[in-house]
Amino acid sequence: MKKLLLIFLLFGSLLLNNCTKNEKIEIIKIQEDKIENQMIRAYQEGMTAFENRLYFEAAKKFNEAEILFPQSEWAPRSALMAAYAYYYDDYNNRAISELINFFKKYPDHPNTPYANYLLAMSYYNKIVDEKKDLEPLKNSKKQFEYIVENYPNTEFSLDSKFKLDLINEMIASKEMYIARHYIQKEKWIPAINRLKFIVTEYDNTVFIEEALHRLVEIYYKIGLEDESRKYAVLLGYNYPEGEWYKNTYKVHKKEYKIEDIKNENKKSTLKKLKSLLD
Predict the structure, then answer these.
(1) What angle do CA 18, 19, 22 make, to 5 degrees?
(2) Which pLDDT belongs to residue 11?
(3) For residue 116, which phi and psi values (nearest 5 degrees)?
(4) If pLDDT is split at 50, 70 and 90, which confidence band does 253 have?
(5) What residues contact 265, with CB distance under 8 A and at least 6 apart?
(6) Phi and psi torsions of 62, nearest 5°
(7) 65, 43 in Cβ contact below 8 A?
(8) CA–CA distance, 83 with 97 (Å, rounded to integer)
(9) In Å, what is the CA distance from 54 to each residue of 46, 51, 59, 85?
(10) CA–CA distance, 63 with 59 (Å, rounded to integer)
């Protein structure tokens, strides 16, 4: 009788434990469902705010959605939408911060290429005056280069290449601006260094011809005629029809006439190079 009672008590205890565990699981599930519903509601409110152009408010709602249920698949979506809303509202520093956190939390997310592009654009939008602040230029250039290298077959890569061309033009513009300042002050060595930097690093920009011509002028002025002729040859060989080559021609041909340039350009490349080196 005692054995039967013991078995009954043990069975009852196990049954009670199982019921308690099931109840706990059920409670947890209900709580998770409730939190997920709250998160989805916050996300939807964020989308509504965004559509109504309340971008800062939208970002806050997306942040709230991510915090409510960080283990949900909606969390990375919310994080990205928050970054996009901040970016769209020109809060670029907040967008950058959101995206850096996104990479830390969701390193393998499928939308990582887009997140990298959005980060590059956030840096790019911070460019206000390239002559005063190079940091946004450097950061955006580095990020666009990363996209081109790591996601070459995406639409983001195509636009990144275009943005890189614009950034290079801006950097070259700054270098030329500084070089002209040194030339006015007759500080020849720093001017030469800036101009050479343009020639070696930014030869695909619109400033390459002026940079070569300025080198011709400076070297001629300080008495280094061989160096001056070297850059004159380089300019004439690559840009024979340009206005800057016409100015360079004046430096080495005192009896300058426009007809001389036209006749010079008709010569063979070898004769052209020799004529400048004579």
Answers:
(1) 85
(2) 40
(3) -65, -40
(4) low
(5) 240, 241, 272
(6) -65, -40
(7) yes
(8) 8
(9) 9, 7, 9, 9
(10) 6
Alpha carbon distance 57, 7 (integer Å): 62
pTM over 0.70: yes
The per-residue b/e assignment along 77-95, b for 16 or more CB within 10 angstroms, e otherwise, is: bbbbbbbbbbbebebbebb
Structure tokens at 113: 């290429």
The residue written with tokens 């965004």 in the block is 50
For residue 246, what are the CA distances in angstroms to 85, 173, 195?
A: 51, 22, 19
In tens, the pLDDT along 26-69 reads 444 445 557 678 888 888 999 999 999 999 999 999 999 989 88
Q: What does the block give as tokens for 220? A: 């001629």
Tokens of 148: 């081109």
Q: Of the candidates 132, 196, 142, 191, which has an alpha carbon nearest to the alpha carbon of residue 168?
A: 142
**Residue 21 CA to chain centroid, in angstroms?**
53
Are 188 and 228 in contact by the 8 Å Cβ rule? The answer is no
Taking only the tens place, the pLDDT of each residue in 163-214 is 999 999 999 999 999 999 999 999 999 999 999 999 999 999 999 999 999 9
CA dihedral 161, 165, 171, 175 (to 10 degrees): 140
